[in-house]
Structures are given as C-alpha cells and as structure tokens.
Design brief:
The radius of gyration is 14 Å and the shape is elongated. It has 4 helices and no strands. The protein has one domain. α1 crosses α3 and α2 crosses α3. The chain is mostly helical and 95 residues long.
Length: 95
C-alpha cells in the first residue's frame, strides 16, 4: 500500500462516523443538489477540514525536504482517491 493510500485509509478509519454521515448526504446531494445543498455544504466543510489535515500530514514534511517537487504529485494522488469515493467533493461550498 502506498503512502497516500495509507493516509486515505487512516483518514476514513479515524473519522468513520463523519465520513459515513457525509457519504449519505453526498449521495443525496448527487441525486437532488438543490434539495440537499445546505446540508451537503455544512457537513462538507467538516469533511474538508479533516481532508486538509491529513493532506498536510501526508505532504507537509516532504515539501520542505529534498523531495519537495514530489509533494504536489502526492497531493494529487491523495485527492484522486478522495474524488473516487466522493465525486462531488469539489462542489462543497459552491452556491
């Protein structure tokens, strides 16, 4: 398992309740965006805060070191996993 996959798995495990709740809201939002927009955005902000925390833990040390040029790629791969599980994550906060 790669480092970004492990961080993704850990993120979901340590915040299981939050991500389980978000998955339900995410799926409702995908089927009816107007009806579930407010709830999706509210829970989505909490989810984004957790995602950013884990992204910083994943990439933070490599940005300052000799592997800084790979940090962007690592972040992109981490976000690919997130978007695979939550395709509408980029719509959080969009009115």
């Amino acid at each position: 398992m790669t480092k970004h996959e492990q961080y993704f798995k850990d993120m979901l495990t340590y915040n299981k309740e939050l991500f389980d709740e978000f998955k339900i809201i995410h799926d409702k939002y995908a089927s009816d965006p107007e009806k579930f927009k407010e709830e999706f955005n509210k829970k989505g902000q909490d989810v984004l805060n957790v995602i950013r925390k884990f992204e910083n833990m994943l990439c933070g040390k490599s940005e300052a070191g000799k592997f800084g040029k790979f940090s962007g790629n690592l972040s992109d791969k981490f976000w690919e996993l997130i978007r695979k599980h939550f395709p509408k994550i980029d719509f959080v906060g969009i009115l």
